[in-house]
Amino acid sequence: RPMEARTRTAPSGEFRLAGLAAGRALLEVRAKEGSALPPPPPSGEMTADRWRQNLLESLDPAAGAFEVPVEGEVRRDVVLATPATVRGTVVDSDDIPVPGAIVRQGVRDPDGDTPVAAAMDDGTFALTAIPGPLVLVAEAPGHSPARSEPREVRPGEVVAGILLRLPREGRVRGTVRAHGGGSVAGALVRVACGDDPDPPQPEQWPGLPAFPAAPDGSFEVSFPVEGPHLHVRAEAAGFEPDFGPPLEAMPGGSAGPADLVLRPRPTLRGTVHSTATGLPVPGARVAVGGIDAWGGASAVTGAGGTFEVPTPADRGFDLDVSADGYARFHRYFESPVRETTLGLDPATPLEGRVEDPDGVGVPGLEVVARHEELPYPLRRPTGPDGSFRFPSLRPGRYVLDAASPRGNGEDWLVAKVKADVPGPPVVLLAKRGLGISGILLDEEGRGLPGIPIKATGREVQAEAMTDAEGCFRIPGLPAGTFDVTGGYWGAGFLPPLAEGVPAGTTDLVLTALRGETIEGTVVDEEGRPVTAVPFRVSAIGGDDHRVVVYTRMDGAGRFRFTGLPAGAYSVHVDLTQATGLVPSAVLDVAAGRRDVVLRLRTGSVIAGTLLDERGRPVRDGSVIAWPAGIPFRPDRWPGSGEAGESFVDGSGRFEVKGLLAGRSYDVIAGGTGGWSAAGARAVPAGTEDLRFVLRKGAGRLRGTLRDAAGEPVGEVVVGIFEGAGLPAAFTSTWTDGTFELEGLPAGPVALSAVIPDRGPEPVPLGTFDPAAGEASATLPPEAGK
């Protein structure tokens, strides 16, 4: 039964424990000049009570903890290990000694038996330590604790030269409140302090410690001062996070007050139904993602297929819907939406096999399926016989390829194939390839981990990531030479390039240089820094005019680009349409400039309604406003504030915001699930009474667009254009020239293409009948490629 007996050894070393109950007991022996117990756990996270409980669960007589049967008189002799001596110094972050700092081994022991030493006036200490794994913890008022690296010490060993650096401790105080007044229940505060004037990236905040605010919203948080810049972030369930303005970290003092205002997240409501039966789909998972300032949200549809899920207040987001027996649905909402209706296609499987030239299946590969309406590829592994299966695909045409997962050492080249779903099983042909391996270093010769490395050949592109030491290996390459690039623009350094690297190279060294910096501020119409929303800022340019980088504003409206090559850039703000603001880009910004000012102003709108032929609202549509007189290309936007998009709400209403006052726009409306398109030419900004009528069509036309030489023509608009040259149905060709049109009326249709070199007017391609199979369209010679 639970009990404890203690005694001390006599001068002869003898001891006697009396009055024990019969059974089995744990015998522990401790001494100031030695120990028979293992030291506390090196992690420093386990309590002493839990440590003892672990000993009870797994005893190790060789370590000095003994399970002893108690029955009458029992004798057990113990040999104590000779203690070790550890010497070192405790300093602060400025390398100034910290006298009086307490240095202990492992965790705190409530019995006071954990080895402890105090630092002298010069910061030095000498600690009598228990042999075995050693971790030292140093503490001092006004400083954050510090831990030494784990190491092993032997009985009687003297270890010297241990340096424990205590960061100075600072405090920040402030208040978290709801927008419009009132407190926020369950609010959390996170703090980041360092040398970087920019706040951490959104995905880094969740990894920082969280401190709860008081019920009235007030908080006071201690943190290690590791640099002059202090960033504070507040978050709470059901609210958008808020970043306070940057503060100055004050060692030993208090920063603030920080006033953090949380805005409620809006809610998206809707229903999910089957496109085959029209019936609601209960149990579907609706997930909101792509929201970089918070972790997303999800909900499950009820019995009527209804759902309710929080969304960002003023940014676009991705919506994914998945359910058993249905193909996965995805849509990106450019601006906030409050109500929608979503249709799921019945799931269709796709099966196949990856074979080598001898017909033998290739196991352990990753098969990738891509579809033009999916923003991400789908992946499945090959089994022992090389077979694979995608269980839930939506009908359509997919491009399949396969490659070796990173790090498995296999080099395979797999030819891409097109597959129709539904359709027969697919066979992918694989053959052996080569690899390129090496290391990515910074200017000081240190390896850069987690950086993508890309090899580009005449017909092949392949990619790998650097490991913890900066090493990489790109597998599955054909014979020939490749241009190898490390990193990307915006990674904080100039991406190094090695040209003409032969496949099979094993010792490639890439060195990344720092590059230039551009800094600036985003202000409103009155010149005040914009702090409410962390907009994304873009810089495009460089001497070769091919650099495109992005960053985000901090809480004071500041932005900063690093790792830029020399040259001039255009700098502007992205993702402002939902707020109705229009940015004014700053052109010819020289790399190295630190005083760029971007001024936001209130924009104009074009609004209206989408209806079907019976006058009922179309709830599954969108509208694009495009500058009049510019060729329509939905894959490329002309520039910030010059084009916009809006999804309709539950009443069929749309509102394209952030347009330039005084401009005219071509407005094009369309819907998913077989709806036609409609539009109007030269609509003045400020128009709010547009009405578009969409038709429902069941026709579908697939085909390929080629030029007069028989080469595929990719990334152009193909469609049916009616009065005023506006599309009744349209899509964009893939890079291989293929396209698919939906929502067509019965019978032959006249097909045209919009060629940017020819202006906005469509170029006729001919008349095609969807019932006759795939269309093979050819551009007239004068249309160009």
Radius of gyration: 34 Å
What CATH architecture of the largest domain do you see? Sandwich
Low-confidence regions: 32-48, 54-64, 107-112
CATH topology of the largest domain: Protocatechuate 3,4-Dioxygenase, subunit A
Helix content: under 10%
Determine the number of helices (DSSP H or I, runs of at least 4 residues): 1
Largest sheet: 5 strands, antiparallel
Give the CATH level 1 class of the largest domain: Mainly Beta
The chain-level mean pLDDT equals 80
Query: First CA to last CA: what distance?
Result: 88 Å
Structural class of the secondary elements?
Answer: mainly beta
**Strand runs, count:** 66
Total domains? 8
Shape by Cα distribution: globular
Q: Beta-strand level of the residues, as a percent range?
A: over 45%
Spell out the CATH superfamily of the largest domain: Aromatic compound dioxygenase
Q: Mind explaining what this structure looks like?
A:
Helix content is about 0%, strand content about 50%. It is mostly beta strands and about 775 residues long. The protein has eight domains: about 85-165, Carboxypeptidase-like, regulatory domain (Immunoglobulin-like, Sandwich); about 170-265, Aromatic compound dioxygenase (Protocatechuate 3,4-Dioxygenase, subunit A), CATH 2.60.130; about 265-345, Carboxypeptidase-like, regulatory domain (Immunoglobulin-like, Sandwich), CATH 2.60.40.1120; about 350-425, Immunoglobulins (Immunoglobulin-like, Sandwich), CATH 2.60.40.10; about 435-510, Immunoglobulins (Immunoglobulin-like); about 515-600, Immunoglobulin-like; about 605-695, Carboxypeptidase-like, regulatory domain (Immunoglobulin-like); about 700-785, Carboxypeptidase-like, regulatory domain (Immunoglobulin-like), CATH 2.60.40. Strands 15, 16, 18, 20 and 21 form a five-stranded antiparallel sheet that branches. Strands 7-6-10-11 form a four-stranded antiparallel sheet, with no helix packed on it. The protein has a four-stranded mixed sheet with strand order 17-14-22-19, with no helix packed on it. The chain is globular and about 110 Å long. The protein starts with about 20 loop residues before the first strand and ends in a 7-residue tail after the last strand.
